[in-house]
Write a structure and sequence with these properties.
The two termini are 30 Å apart. The protein is α/β, with parallel strands linked by helices. The chain has a single domain, classed as Aldolase class I (TIM Barrel), CATH 3.20.20.70. It contains nine helices and six strands.
C-alpha cells in the first residue's frame, strides 16, 4: 500500500510496454509521483524532477503527491515554500516540452483553512491543471474500533467512509476559493452514485474511486455512472 513500488525506471518501461501492446487504447494513464523515503525534504524537489522526466513520455498527466501519510515527513512538503520549489521546477521543465503534460497536486484532508488558502494561491500562481482532494486522513475521530487497538495498529492513512465528510468539506472549500479557475478531482469515501453526486455538488469536476473499488469491485464505475 502507498508508495512502495519498483521505481521510476521499471514503471516507465512497464507502461511503455503496455502502450506498445495497446496502441489504440483510450485509457488515460496518470503518473503519481513522490519523493523517496530516505530523501531529505530539502532535496525532495530532485526526486520529483527525476520521476517527472522518466515518466514524461509514457503517462498522460502527473499528480504531485505531497500528502501520503505513509512516507515520514512527506506532508511537510505541503508548506507553501517547499511546495512552490517543487511545483515551479516541474512547471519550468514542463514548459520546455513540445506537448506539456497536465500537472495536478494531491493534497491531504487534514490541512487547516490557512493551508488550503496557500494551496489555492499557489495553484493559480503556478497555473496548475487541477487539484486532487483528498488523500487519506490521519484523523482517528469517530471510529468504532477500540482506542487501544487503533493505537496498536499504528500510524497510516485512513481511507473510505471515515474520510467521506472531511474530503467533501475540503472540496467545497477549494471550489469556493478557486471559483472555477482550476478543476478539482474529488477522492475520499466514494462508494455509490450518491457519494459521487455529493462530491460533484460540492464543486468537483471529476471523481476518483479507491477504497470503493475494493469493496464494490470493477462494476462500481458502471453502477455510479448509470445512476448519475
Amino acid at each position: 500500500m502507498g508508495f512502495n513500488n519498483d521505481g521510476a525506471d521499471v514503471i516507465a518501461n512497464r507502461v511503455a510496454a503496455w502502450r506498445k501492446q495497446n496502441p489504440n487504447s483510450k485509457l488515460i494513464v496518470g503518473g503519481n509521483i513522490g519523493k523517496n523515503k530516505i530523501t531529505a525534504n530539502e532535496d525532495a524537489w530532485k526526486d520529483y524532477q527525476i520521476c517527472f522526466e522518466k515518466l514524461f513520455d509514457v503517462v498522460d498527466y502527473f499528480v504531485v503527491n505531497v500528502s501520503s501519510p505513509n512516507t515520514p515527513g512527506l506532508r511537510a512538503l505541503q508548506d507553501k515554500d517547499a511546495l512552490h520549489t517543487i511545483l515551479s521546477n516541474l512547471q519550468k521543465i514542463n514548459a520546455t516540452k513540445n506537448s506539456p503534460k497536465p500537472l495536478l497536486l494531491k493534497i491531504a484532508p487534514d490541512l487547516t483553512d490557512a493551508q488550503l488558502d496557500d494551496i489555492i494561491a499557489l495553484s493559480t500562481e503556478l497555473q496548475l491543471d487541477g487539484l486532487v482532494a483528498t488523500n487519506t486522513t490521519i484523523d482517528r475521530r469517530g471510529l468504532y474500533t477500540n482506542e487501544k487497538k487503533i493505537e496498536a495498529i499504528g500510524m497510516g492513512g485512513l481511507s473510505g467512509k471515515p474520510l467521506t465528510n472531511r474530503s467533501t468539506d475540503v472540496v467545497r472549500y477549494l471550489a469556493k476559493g478557486l471559483n472555477g479557475q482550476i478543476p478539482i478531482i474529488a477522492s475520499g469515501g466514494i462508494f455509490n452514485a450518491e457519494d459521487a453526486t455529493n462530491k460533484l455538488n460540492a464543486g468537483a469536476s471529476l471523481v476518483q474511486v479507491w477504497t470503493g473499488f475494493v469493496y464494490e469491485g470493477p462494476a462500481i464505475v458502471k453502477n455510479i455512472c448509470s445512476k448519475l
